[in-house]
Amino acid sequence: MATMGDRFPHRYPLGVDQHCARRAALTVAMTAAALWLATPPATARAEEGEPPEIQAQRLVHMLTYVGADYGAAVRDGTIISQLEYDEQLDLLTDAAKIAAHLTTGGSKEGAGIPPGIAALREKIEARAPQPDVAEAATLVARDVEATFHLADAPLVPPDPALAATLFATHCATCHGDTGRADTPRAETLIPRPTDFHDPEIVDGMSPLRAVTTTRFGVPGTAMAPFPFFTEEERWSLGFHLIGLRHAATRPSEAPLPSYTFIELALRSDDDLRHDLAARGVPEADRPAALAALRQRAPLDPAGTMRPLTRARAHITRALTATRAGDRSAARAPLATAASLALTAAPAPLRARGIDPTRLDDRLLGARTALDQDADPDALESALSALLREATYADVSLAATAPPSPRDQALTAASITLRNGIGAALGAAALLGATHRPRRAHLLLLLTLLGGAAASWATRALQHHLLGVLGLSALLTAALTTTASLQLLTSRETRLHADPRTEQEQTKAPLPPLLLVASCLGIATWSFSTLATGTLPLLAADGALGAITSGTLVATITVLLIAHLLGRATTRPSSPSQAHLRAGLTLLGALAFTALGASALERADHLPLPLIPLPRIPLLDTRPTLSTALAGMLVLFVWGLALLLRRNGDATEHVDPQ
Description:
By secondary structure, the chain is an all-alpha fold. Helices cover 65% and strands 1% of the residues. Strand 1 (74-75) and strand 2 form a beta hairpin. The longest helix is centred in the C-terminal third of the chain and has 28 residues, at 462-489.
């Protein structure tokens, strides 16, 4: 299966030459001279002023080239091409300079990249075997990718008509109309352009590899970089090149394994053959199946329905709007991208051991830059960083192996527990305030199922979920705050001022606001747990049994905690128990306040100025001005109402004489 570190092209994966179409009429000598001047051996050297992420991408390309090309320079410990060998060392010299520039500043991240390049150079100087050099280059390249969260993936499915036009204009002179590199022009080039029907070359090549090569070129060959291609053009051409060898094969009409165009962009033919074999496709049927995957499957519109792919499209729209100077037009697509990314991505990423908080951080950075009217360069940089992080997450989900059932169950359980803090506290207050616990338990169960049903019914409206969740949580917080005050100041709960018997107190009616607040809190918890945890895991082809068991275990744990806390404050109560009940309810209100304000911030319904405080992992929120003010407002209203009520009580007890 392909991984994000799968970036190692064949020695000369593409012989595409941008001079082919422009200088085809020149003599062989003039063309060779022009190519020598236009494509010096260090085509992949970094350009001045390149952003760090571009330099990191270039560094990966250089390392992958060294790992793949070393076999043409050294064989069995003997140099067979001094020119190739010197080129390897020159590339590593440039790579070391880029790595030193990227890892300055004392950060631990990426600290192993320069030593890794040095170790790779030592292997080459010692004329180590090709597999050892390739493995060392792979490890360093993956370190660079992990450090800078590098990932490439198409934003939209390929355009076959566009790809055919690009190939005919820029590639066919050297590679031939069918990609066999059998043209007179190809005869004059050393090394010869790639034959895209050669299994030794193409079997291990993915569209991603083709795209990387068109972006940066191949040093020492006629393959120059194509910086003027757009991303859509580059990816369309990459799919076209890998599909050339399958053009003469009739695609299979039988049902095939489901792949999105992103997964197909990352996989080579070898990867797909392995997958087909693992899925039981007979060997005789694999060529036709592979032809279908290369010709038809990338065009399936269902691939664009991935939430993160849709989020990346909206981020691109926001980036385009800001580049055009229309900041107001960037707000709506950015808010939609946030809802899609933050409701669908965290759970599957966590199940795969990938921290999703960096995606949230990038989103907060882009929103803050937009809210604070940052200068155009800073805003574009923030949006570009968000787009890269969303692409990294999208590729991570497409390229990494599915998590184990155990990891899926643990992820579902952790999300359920984290979202259930406020619900448990509110439910505890409800259970402690009623003298009919069986009815209270039944009510909690019904509202829990109601929230689950609402989440299932609105699962197709992902771009609205953050707003719905935020409003529901804040409404819960408001009702719970009022219920807490009612519990604390109600005459029925102050035994020292209540002459009724204990039996009469147990028949006191349950505060209606507490009933409504607790039910709404349980429903909100259930809604958020399924919307941001269980359903995204299931949509990512999670194991139903593992996810369900994890969610149920965590749900039972939350309700058990609520039951035990409720018993500690059950009627008949003392003043201290009444205060405890009110305090638990207030804590639940604060938890729902943080959840609601955070959701509305990310949905662009509240401003988003950050506070330089650490994230609160337990609530999965980062301190912002809105969440802080919302929490302070709850405490202020609660304290003010309590003070006014006590003053009123004191006035009632003043002797009129």
